[in-house]
Amino acid sequence: MLAQLKRLGGDSLLYALMNVGTKLIAFIMLPIYTHYLPNPAEYGVLDYLDRITAMLTFLVIFGTDSALAFYYFDTKDEAKRKRYVQNVMLFRLGIVAVCFLAILVGGQWLSNALLDNPNYAHFLYLSIGILLLDTVVALILTVLRYEFKTLKVVIYTVLKMLLVAVLSYAILRYFLTSVEGILIGRIISAVVVLLLISKYLFSYLRFSIDKQVLKEILKYAAPLVPASIAFWVIVNANVFFLKEFTSFTEVGIYGTAMKFAALITLLTSGVQMAWRPYSMSLKDKKGSEHVFSKLYMAILLLGTVGVLFVATIMPWVIKLLDQNYYEAYKYVAPIAAVTFLNFFYMIISVGIFFSKQTKYISIAFGIAALVNLGLNFVLIPLYSIWGTVAAYLLSYIVAIILIFFKSQKAYYVPVSFFKMAFLFSNMLLAVFAIIYIQESSLPGIYILAAWGYFIVMTVVSRVDRDFRKKPVTAET
Hints:
It holds the Pfam family Polysacc_synt. Keywords: Cell membrane, Membrane, Transmembrane, Transmembrane helix. This is Oligosaccharide flippase family protein. InterPro entries: Poly_Biosynth_Transport (IPR050833), Polysacc_synth (IPR002797). It is a multi-pass membrane protein. The protein is mainly alpha-helical. The chain has one domain (about 1-465). It is about 80% helix and about 0% strand. It is built from 19 helices and no strands. The protein is globular and about 65 Å long. The N and C termini lie close together (about 5 Å).
Protein backbone atom coordinates (compact mmCIF):
# COMPACT_ATOMS: atom_id res chain seq x y z
CA MET A 1 0.00 0.00 0.00
CA LEU A 2 2.87 2.36 0.75
CA ALA A 3 4.15 1.91 -2.79
CA GLN A 4 0.68 2.72 -4.18
CA LEU A 5 0.45 5.87 -2.08
CA LYS A 6 3.92 6.92 -3.21
CA ARG A 7 2.88 6.48 -6.83
CA LEU A 8 -0.27 8.56 -6.34
CA GLY A 9 1.74 11.19 -4.49
CA GLY A 10 4.52 11.31 -7.08
CA ASP A 11 2.22 11.42 -10.08
CA SER A 12 -0.07 13.92 -8.38
CA LEU A 13 2.89 16.17 -7.64
CA LEU A 14 4.05 16.16 -11.25
CA TYR A 15 0.54 16.72 -12.55
CA ALA A 16 0.05 19.46 -9.97
CA LEU A 17 3.23 21.17 -11.15
CA MET A 18 2.02 20.82 -14.72
CA ASN A 19 -1.34 22.32 -13.90
CA VAL A 20 0.22 25.09 -11.85
CA GLY A 21 2.31 25.93 -14.91
CA THR A 22 -0.56 25.83 -17.37
CA LYS A 23 -2.95 27.71 -15.07
CA LEU A 24 -0.35 30.37 -14.39
CA ILE A 25 0.20 30.78 -18.11
CA ALA A 26 -3.56 31.09 -18.61
CA PHE A 27 -3.72 33.50 -15.70
CA ILE A 28 -1.00 35.67 -17.23
CA MET A 29 -2.76 35.63 -20.60
CA LEU A 30 -6.14 36.74 -19.29
CA PRO A 31 -5.03 40.36 -18.68
CA ILE A 32 -3.47 40.35 -22.15
CA TYR A 33 -6.72 39.15 -23.71
CA THR A 34 -8.74 41.76 -21.85
CA HIS A 35 -6.23 44.43 -22.89
CA TYR A 36 -6.60 43.64 -26.58
CA LEU A 37 -10.32 42.89 -26.17
CA PRO A 38 -11.28 45.77 -23.81
CA ASN A 39 -14.97 45.38 -24.52
CA PRO A 40 -16.36 42.50 -22.37
CA ALA A 41 -18.73 41.69 -25.24
CA GLU A 42 -15.74 40.73 -27.44
CA TYR A 43 -14.42 38.43 -24.75
CA GLY A 44 -17.98 37.16 -24.39
CA VAL A 45 -17.88 35.97 -28.02
CA LEU A 46 -14.62 34.09 -27.35
CA ASP A 47 -16.08 32.51 -24.22
CA TYR A 48 -19.22 31.57 -26.14
CA LEU A 49 -17.13 29.84 -28.80
CA ASP A 50 -15.29 27.94 -26.08
CA ARG A 51 -18.63 26.76 -24.69
CA ILE A 52 -19.71 25.48 -28.10
CA THR A 53 -16.38 23.69 -28.50
CA ALA A 54 -16.81 22.18 -25.04
CA MET A 55 -20.17 20.76 -26.08
CA LEU A 56 -18.67 19.24 -29.20
CA THR A 57 -15.80 17.82 -27.14
CA PHE A 58 -18.28 15.93 -24.98
CA LEU A 59 -19.87 14.48 -28.12
CA VAL A 60 -16.48 13.54 -29.55
CA ILE A 61 -15.36 11.79 -26.37
CA PHE A 62 -18.75 10.07 -26.05
CA GLY A 63 -17.78 8.47 -22.74
CA THR A 64 -14.86 6.63 -24.33
CA ASP A 65 -12.37 8.11 -21.86
CA SER A 66 -13.88 6.11 -18.99
CA ALA A 67 -14.28 3.02 -21.18
CA LEU A 68 -10.66 3.18 -22.30
CA ALA A 69 -9.49 3.59 -18.69
CA PHE A 70 -11.40 0.47 -17.66
CA TYR A 71 -10.37 -1.83 -20.52
CA TYR A 72 -6.81 -0.57 -20.65
CA PHE A 73 -6.23 -1.75 -17.10
CA ASP A 74 -8.55 -4.74 -17.39
CA THR A 75 -6.24 -6.51 -19.86
CA LYS A 76 -2.53 -7.22 -19.76
CA ASP A 77 -2.37 -7.94 -23.50
CA GLU A 78 -0.41 -5.05 -25.07
CA ALA A 79 -1.76 -5.79 -28.55
CA LYS A 80 -5.33 -5.61 -27.32
CA ARG A 81 -4.61 -2.41 -25.43
CA LYS A 82 -3.39 -0.89 -28.69
CA ARG A 83 -6.56 -2.01 -30.47
CA TYR A 84 -8.67 -0.30 -27.82
CA VAL A 85 -6.78 2.96 -28.36
CA GLN A 86 -6.92 2.67 -32.15
CA ASN A 87 -10.67 2.19 -32.16
CA VAL A 88 -11.25 5.05 -29.75
CA MET A 89 -9.11 7.26 -32.03
CA LEU A 90 -11.10 6.34 -35.14
CA PHE A 91 -14.41 6.78 -33.40
CA ARG A 92 -13.52 10.26 -32.13
CA LEU A 93 -12.18 11.38 -35.49
CA GLY A 94 -15.41 10.19 -37.08
CA ILE A 95 -17.47 12.39 -34.76
CA VAL A 96 -15.21 15.37 -35.52
CA ALA A 97 -15.74 14.77 -39.26
CA VAL A 98 -19.52 14.86 -38.82
CA CYS A 99 -19.27 18.12 -36.85
CA PHE A 100 -17.03 19.63 -39.54
CA LEU A 101 -19.51 18.78 -42.29
CA ALA A 102 -22.36 20.34 -40.32
CA ILE A 103 -20.44 23.59 -39.85
CA LEU A 104 -19.25 23.57 -43.46
CA VAL A 105 -22.82 23.30 -44.74
CA GLY A 106 -24.47 25.71 -42.32
CA GLY A 107 -21.61 28.01 -41.35
CA GLN A 108 -23.21 31.42 -41.90
CA TRP A 109 -26.60 30.35 -40.60
CA LEU A 110 -25.04 28.87 -37.46
CA SER A 111 -22.89 31.95 -37.00
CA ASN A 112 -25.93 34.20 -37.13
CA ALA A 113 -27.93 31.94 -34.80
CA LEU A 114 -25.18 31.46 -32.22
CA LEU A 115 -23.05 34.60 -32.45
CA ASP A 116 -25.63 37.10 -33.74
CA ASN A 117 -23.41 37.84 -36.73
CA PRO A 118 -23.21 35.83 -40.00
CA ASN A 119 -19.74 37.29 -40.64
CA TYR A 120 -18.33 35.28 -37.71
CA ALA A 121 -18.60 31.97 -39.60
CA HIS A 122 -14.80 31.78 -39.88
CA PHE A 123 -14.66 31.67 -36.07
CA LEU A 124 -16.61 28.42 -36.23
CA TYR A 125 -14.27 26.98 -38.90
CA LEU A 126 -11.24 27.80 -36.77
CA SER A 127 -12.89 26.30 -33.69
CA ILE A 128 -13.59 22.99 -35.42
CA GLY A 129 -9.95 22.88 -36.57
CA ILE A 130 -8.85 23.32 -32.96
CA LEU A 131 -11.24 20.55 -31.93
CA LEU A 132 -9.73 18.15 -34.47
CA LEU A 133 -6.14 18.75 -33.38
CA ASP A 134 -6.96 18.72 -29.67
CA THR A 135 -8.87 15.45 -30.07
CA VAL A 136 -5.78 13.66 -31.36
CA VAL A 137 -3.34 15.28 -28.92
CA ALA A 138 -5.60 14.59 -25.92
CA LEU A 139 -5.94 10.88 -26.69
CA ILE A 140 -2.19 10.38 -27.12
CA LEU A 141 -1.51 12.15 -23.83
CA THR A 142 -4.21 10.04 -22.16
CA VAL A 143 -2.46 6.84 -23.22
CA LEU A 144 0.88 8.16 -21.97
CA ARG A 145 -0.83 8.91 -18.66
CA TYR A 146 -2.18 5.35 -18.45
CA GLU A 147 1.35 4.08 -19.07
CA PHE A 148 2.51 6.27 -16.17
CA LYS A 149 4.78 8.29 -18.47
CA THR A 150 3.94 11.26 -16.34
CA LEU A 151 6.93 13.43 -17.20
CA LYS A 152 6.19 13.28 -20.94
CA VAL A 153 2.57 14.22 -20.35
CA VAL A 154 3.67 17.18 -18.26
CA ILE A 155 6.22 18.40 -20.82
CA TYR A 156 3.89 18.21 -23.82
CA THR A 157 0.96 19.78 -21.97
CA VAL A 158 2.95 22.72 -20.62
CA LEU A 159 4.63 23.22 -23.99
CA LYS A 160 1.27 23.38 -25.75
CA MET A 161 -0.08 25.95 -23.30
CA LEU A 162 3.09 28.00 -23.53
CA LEU A 163 2.91 28.02 -27.32
CA VAL A 164 -0.74 29.12 -27.17
CA ALA A 165 0.25 32.02 -24.94
CA VAL A 166 3.26 33.16 -26.97
CA LEU A 167 1.64 32.79 -30.38
CA SER A 168 -1.66 34.36 -29.33
CA TYR A 169 0.15 37.34 -27.85
CA ALA A 170 2.33 37.77 -30.94
CA ILE A 171 -0.63 37.59 -33.30
CA LEU A 172 -2.73 39.96 -31.17
CA ARG A 173 0.06 42.51 -30.95
CA TYR A 174 1.41 42.45 -34.48
CA PHE A 175 -1.27 41.04 -36.79
CA LEU A 176 -4.88 40.61 -35.62
CA THR A 177 -6.32 42.40 -32.59
CA SER A 178 -9.40 40.22 -32.46
CA VAL A 179 -10.82 36.89 -31.37
CA GLU A 180 -9.52 35.44 -34.64
CA GLY A 181 -5.92 36.05 -33.57
CA ILE A 182 -6.38 33.99 -30.41
CA LEU A 183 -7.95 31.10 -32.34
CA ILE A 184 -5.14 31.05 -34.90
CA GLY A 185 -2.59 30.94 -32.09
CA ARG A 186 -4.33 27.88 -30.65
CA ILE A 187 -4.29 26.07 -33.99
CA ILE A 188 -0.58 26.63 -34.63
CA SER A 189 0.36 25.48 -31.11
CA ALA A 190 -1.68 22.27 -31.46
CA VAL A 191 -0.01 21.52 -34.82
CA VAL A 192 3.47 21.91 -33.29
CA VAL A 193 2.71 19.56 -30.38
CA LEU A 194 1.09 17.05 -32.71
CA LEU A 195 4.27 16.95 -34.79
CA LEU A 196 6.32 16.32 -31.65
CA ILE A 197 4.20 13.34 -30.59
CA SER A 198 3.74 12.02 -34.12
CA LYS A 199 5.64 8.80 -33.37
CA TYR A 200 2.89 7.86 -30.91
CA LEU A 201 0.19 8.99 -33.33
CA PHE A 202 1.32 6.61 -36.08
CA SER A 203 1.26 3.78 -33.58
CA TYR A 204 -2.39 4.37 -32.73
CA LEU A 205 -3.78 5.66 -36.02
CA ARG A 206 -5.22 2.71 -37.87
CA PHE A 207 -7.92 3.08 -40.50
CA SER A 208 -9.62 -0.20 -39.69
CA ILE A 209 -12.30 -0.78 -37.07
CA ASP A 210 -12.34 -3.85 -34.86
CA LYS A 211 -16.10 -4.28 -34.44
CA GLN A 212 -15.82 -6.41 -31.31
CA VAL A 213 -13.47 -3.99 -29.56
CA LEU A 214 -15.53 -0.96 -30.57
CA LYS A 215 -18.68 -2.71 -29.35
CA GLU A 216 -17.09 -3.31 -25.94
CA ILE A 217 -15.99 0.31 -25.69
CA LEU A 218 -19.35 1.76 -26.71
CA LYS A 219 -21.28 -0.63 -24.47
CA TYR A 220 -19.32 0.73 -21.50
CA ALA A 221 -19.28 4.31 -22.76
CA ALA A 222 -22.84 4.78 -24.05
CA PRO A 223 -24.45 5.00 -20.59
CA LEU A 224 -22.07 7.90 -19.86
CA VAL A 225 -23.14 9.94 -22.91
CA PRO A 226 -26.25 11.41 -21.27
CA ALA A 227 -23.97 12.34 -18.37
CA SER A 228 -21.66 14.16 -20.78
CA ILE A 229 -24.59 16.06 -22.25
CA ALA A 230 -25.82 16.81 -18.74
CA PHE A 231 -22.34 18.04 -17.81
CA TRP A 232 -22.39 20.40 -20.73
CA VAL A 233 -25.87 21.65 -19.86
CA ILE A 234 -24.90 22.32 -16.24
CA VAL A 235 -21.63 24.06 -17.10
CA ASN A 236 -22.63 25.92 -20.24
CA ALA A 237 -26.41 26.28 -20.63
CA ASN A 238 -26.40 29.16 -18.16
CA VAL A 239 -24.24 31.15 -20.57
CA PHE A 240 -26.79 30.69 -23.35
CA PHE A 241 -29.57 31.84 -21.02
CA LEU A 242 -27.39 34.74 -19.91
CA LYS A 243 -26.79 35.79 -23.50
CA GLU A 244 -30.49 35.57 -24.39
CA PHE A 245 -31.75 37.37 -21.29
CA THR A 246 -28.92 39.94 -21.07
CA SER A 247 -26.04 40.41 -23.53
CA PHE A 248 -22.53 39.32 -24.53
CA THR A 249 -21.21 41.84 -21.99
CA GLU A 250 -22.58 39.78 -19.09
CA VAL A 251 -21.30 36.65 -20.82
CA GLY A 252 -17.84 38.23 -20.89
CA ILE A 253 -17.98 39.13 -17.18
CA TYR A 254 -19.20 35.67 -16.23
CA GLY A 255 -16.64 34.01 -18.50
CA THR A 256 -13.89 36.01 -16.84
CA ALA A 257 -15.08 34.87 -13.41
CA MET A 258 -15.07 31.28 -14.64
CA LYS A 259 -11.45 31.61 -15.75
CA PHE A 260 -10.40 32.95 -12.35
CA ALA A 261 -12.39 30.24 -10.60
CA ALA A 262 -10.12 27.73 -12.30
CA LEU A 263 -7.49 28.78 -9.75
CA ILE A 264 -8.95 26.11 -7.46
CA THR A 265 -7.79 23.47 -9.91
CA LEU A 266 -4.22 24.32 -8.97
CA LEU A 267 -5.01 22.28 -5.86
CA THR A 268 -7.10 19.53 -7.42
CA SER A 269 -6.12 18.87 -11.03
CA GLY A 270 -2.93 16.96 -10.24
CA VAL A 271 -4.89 14.50 -8.14
CA GLN A 272 -7.64 14.37 -10.77
CA MET A 273 -5.27 13.23 -13.52
CA ALA A 274 -3.64 10.63 -11.31
CA TRP A 275 -6.88 9.46 -9.65
CA ARG A 276 -8.41 7.24 -12.32
CA PRO A 277 -5.42 4.92 -12.87
CA TYR A 278 -4.64 4.99 -9.14
CA SER A 279 -8.18 4.16 -7.97
CA MET A 280 -8.61 1.45 -10.63
CA SER A 281 -5.33 -0.15 -9.53
CA LEU A 282 -6.79 -0.50 -6.00
CA LYS A 283 -10.03 -2.07 -7.22
CA ASP A 284 -9.24 -5.60 -6.02
CA LYS A 285 -6.95 -4.85 -3.08
CA LYS A 286 -8.09 -5.74 0.42
CA GLY A 287 -8.70 -2.83 2.79
CA SER A 288 -8.73 -0.16 0.05
CA GLU A 289 -11.98 1.28 1.37
CA HIS A 290 -10.09 2.64 4.39
CA VAL A 291 -7.61 4.38 2.11
CA PHE A 292 -10.49 5.94 0.18
CA SER A 293 -12.22 7.18 3.36
CA LYS A 294 -9.13 9.14 4.41
CA LEU A 295 -8.62 10.48 0.90
CA TYR A 296 -12.26 11.63 0.64
CA MET A 297 -11.94 13.76 3.76
CA ALA A 298 -8.43 15.04 3.07
CA ILE A 299 -9.33 16.14 -0.46
CA LEU A 300 -12.53 17.83 0.75
CA LEU A 301 -10.60 19.82 3.37
CA LEU A 302 -8.02 20.87 0.81
CA GLY A 303 -10.73 22.04 -1.58
CA THR A 304 -12.74 24.03 0.97
CA VAL A 305 -9.66 25.87 2.19
CA GLY A 306 -8.74 26.59 -1.42
CA VAL A 307 -12.15 28.12 -2.19
CA LEU A 308 -11.92 30.35 0.90
CA PHE A 309 -8.46 31.48 -0.18
CA VAL A 310 -9.78 32.36 -3.65
CA ALA A 311 -12.60 34.42 -2.11
CA THR A 312 -10.13 36.30 0.09
CA ILE A 313 -7.62 37.34 -2.56
CA MET A 314 -9.89 37.89 -5.55
CA PRO A 315 -10.55 41.68 -5.25
CA TRP A 316 -6.80 42.31 -5.46
CA VAL A 317 -6.13 39.74 -8.16
CA ILE A 318 -8.92 40.93 -10.47
CA LYS A 319 -7.32 44.40 -10.65
CA LEU A 320 -4.85 42.91 -13.13
CA LEU A 321 -7.61 43.13 -15.72
CA ASP A 322 -9.14 46.06 -17.54
CA GLN A 323 -11.41 48.03 -15.19
CA ASN A 324 -14.45 47.00 -17.24
CA TYR A 325 -14.01 43.45 -15.89
CA TYR A 326 -13.62 44.30 -12.18
CA GLU A 327 -17.11 43.26 -11.05
CA ALA A 328 -16.28 39.65 -11.97
CA TYR A 329 -14.38 39.20 -8.68
CA LYS A 330 -17.49 38.62 -6.56
CA TYR A 331 -18.62 35.63 -8.62
CA VAL A 332 -15.29 33.80 -8.64
CA ALA A 333 -15.32 31.98 -5.28
CA PRO A 334 -18.85 30.48 -5.58
CA ILE A 335 -17.95 29.27 -9.08
CA ALA A 336 -14.68 27.88 -7.69
CA ALA A 337 -16.77 25.88 -5.20
CA VAL A 338 -18.62 24.31 -8.14
CA THR A 339 -15.34 23.70 -9.95
CA PHE A 340 -14.20 21.78 -6.89
CA LEU A 341 -17.42 19.71 -6.85
CA ASN A 342 -16.85 18.89 -10.53
CA PHE A 343 -13.58 17.32 -9.45
CA PHE A 344 -14.83 15.82 -6.18
CA TYR A 345 -17.60 13.77 -7.79
CA MET A 346 -14.88 11.71 -9.50
CA ILE A 347 -13.31 10.98 -6.12
CA ILE A 348 -16.49 9.82 -4.39
CA SER A 349 -17.83 7.73 -7.32
CA VAL A 350 -15.30 4.87 -7.17
CA GLY A 351 -18.05 2.37 -6.37
CA ILE A 352 -19.97 3.26 -9.52
CA PHE A 353 -16.91 2.76 -11.74
CA PHE A 354 -15.79 -0.40 -9.95
CA SER A 355 -19.22 -1.99 -10.44
CA LYS A 356 -19.64 -0.70 -14.02
CA GLN A 357 -22.88 1.08 -13.06
CA THR A 358 -21.83 4.12 -15.04
CA LYS A 359 -25.34 4.75 -16.31
CA TYR A 360 -26.21 6.11 -12.88
CA ILE A 361 -23.83 9.01 -13.40
CA SER A 362 -25.91 9.89 -16.45
CA ILE A 363 -29.08 9.67 -14.38
CA ALA A 364 -27.68 11.84 -11.58
CA PHE A 365 -26.34 14.54 -13.87
CA GLY A 366 -29.44 14.32 -16.04
CA ILE A 367 -31.55 15.20 -13.01
CA ALA A 368 -29.08 17.95 -12.10
CA ALA A 369 -29.23 19.31 -15.66
CA LEU A 370 -33.02 19.58 -15.49
CA VAL A 371 -32.69 21.38 -12.16
CA ASN A 372 -30.11 23.66 -13.75
CA LEU A 373 -32.30 24.54 -16.72
CA GLY A 374 -35.28 25.31 -14.51
CA LEU A 375 -33.26 27.47 -12.14
CA ASN A 376 -31.59 29.35 -15.00
CA PHE A 377 -34.96 30.09 -16.58
CA VAL A 378 -36.30 31.47 -13.30
CA LEU A 379 -33.24 33.10 -11.72
CA ILE A 380 -31.32 34.75 -14.57
CA PRO A 381 -34.11 37.21 -15.55
CA LEU A 382 -34.34 38.18 -11.87
CA TYR A 383 -30.71 38.20 -10.74
CA SER A 384 -28.62 38.15 -13.94
CA ILE A 385 -25.15 36.70 -13.23
CA TRP A 386 -25.98 35.83 -9.60
CA GLY A 387 -28.88 33.75 -10.91
CA THR A 388 -26.46 31.90 -13.15
CA VAL A 389 -24.09 31.22 -10.26
CA ALA A 390 -26.90 29.99 -7.99
CA ALA A 391 -28.25 27.60 -10.64
CA TYR A 392 -24.75 26.26 -11.30
CA LEU A 393 -24.01 25.61 -7.63
CA LEU A 394 -27.36 24.09 -6.65
CA SER A 395 -27.48 21.71 -9.62
CA TYR A 396 -24.02 20.34 -8.81
CA ILE A 397 -24.98 19.80 -5.18
CA VAL A 398 -27.93 17.70 -6.36
CA ALA A 399 -25.65 15.58 -8.56
CA ILE A 400 -23.05 15.07 -5.83
CA ILE A 401 -25.63 13.84 -3.33
CA LEU A 402 -27.16 11.35 -5.77
CA ILE A 403 -23.78 10.00 -6.90
CA PHE A 404 -22.36 9.64 -3.39
CA PHE A 405 -25.19 7.48 -2.06
CA LYS A 406 -25.30 5.28 -5.16
CA SER A 407 -21.54 4.75 -5.04
CA GLN A 408 -21.75 3.85 -1.35
CA LYS A 409 -24.26 1.11 -2.13
CA ALA A 410 -21.95 -0.38 -4.76
CA TYR A 411 -18.71 -0.07 -2.74
CA TYR A 412 -18.99 1.10 0.83
CA VAL A 413 -16.41 3.60 2.03
CA PRO A 414 -16.52 4.30 5.80
CA VAL A 415 -16.93 8.09 5.65
CA SER A 416 -19.67 10.37 7.04
CA PHE A 417 -21.78 12.16 4.45
CA PHE A 418 -23.15 14.44 7.17
CA LYS A 419 -19.66 15.53 8.14
CA MET A 420 -18.66 16.24 4.55
CA ALA A 421 -21.88 18.21 3.94
CA PHE A 422 -21.32 20.13 7.18
CA LEU A 423 -17.81 21.17 6.13
CA PHE A 424 -18.88 22.22 2.63
CA SER A 425 -21.92 24.17 3.87
CA ASN A 426 -19.88 26.11 6.40
CA MET A 427 -17.31 26.90 3.74
CA LEU A 428 -20.10 28.39 1.58
CA LEU A 429 -21.37 30.48 4.48
CA ALA A 430 -17.86 31.83 5.08
CA VAL A 431 -17.40 32.57 1.36
CA PHE A 432 -20.61 34.57 1.05
CA ALA A 433 -19.74 36.41 4.25
CA ILE A 434 -16.37 37.38 2.76
CA ILE A 435 -18.00 38.60 -0.47
CA TYR A 436 -20.51 40.68 1.52
CA ILE A 437 -17.67 42.17 3.59
CA GLN A 438 -15.72 43.05 0.43
CA GLU A 439 -18.77 44.56 -1.30
CA SER A 440 -19.58 46.62 1.81
CA SER A 441 -15.96 47.82 2.19
CA LEU A 442 -15.89 46.63 5.81
CA PRO A 443 -12.54 46.31 7.68
CA GLY A 444 -10.39 43.30 6.88
CA ILE A 445 -10.77 42.01 10.44
CA TYR A 446 -14.24 40.79 9.47
CA ILE A 447 -12.70 38.56 6.79
CA LEU A 448 -10.47 37.04 9.46
CA ALA A 449 -13.62 36.44 11.51
CA ALA A 450 -15.14 34.52 8.57
CA TRP A 451 -12.03 32.35 8.41
CA GLY A 452 -12.21 31.88 12.16
CA TYR A 453 -15.81 30.70 11.89
CA PHE A 454 -14.84 28.09 9.29
CA ILE A 455 -11.90 26.85 11.37
CA VAL A 456 -14.05 26.55 14.50
CA MET A 457 -16.74 24.62 12.62
CA THR A 458 -14.09 22.29 11.21
CA VAL A 459 -12.76 21.60 14.71
CA VAL A 460 -16.28 21.08 16.03
CA SER A 461 -16.91 18.45 13.32
CA ARG A 462 -14.00 16.41 14.76
CA VAL A 463 -12.65 15.67 11.33
CA ASP A 464 -9.41 14.57 12.99
CA ARG A 465 -11.13 11.32 13.98
CA ASP A 466 -11.37 10.35 10.32
CA PHE A 467 -7.58 10.36 10.10
CA ARG A 468 -7.12 8.34 13.28
CA LYS A 469 -9.21 5.33 12.35
CA LYS A 470 -7.74 1.85 12.47
CA PRO A 471 -4.57 1.36 10.41
CA VAL A 472 -4.85 0.48 6.76
CA THR A 473 -4.39 -3.25 6.14
CA ALA A 474 -4.55 -3.32 2.35
CA GLU A 475 -2.03 -5.48 0.59
CA THR A 476 0.54 -3.91 -1.68
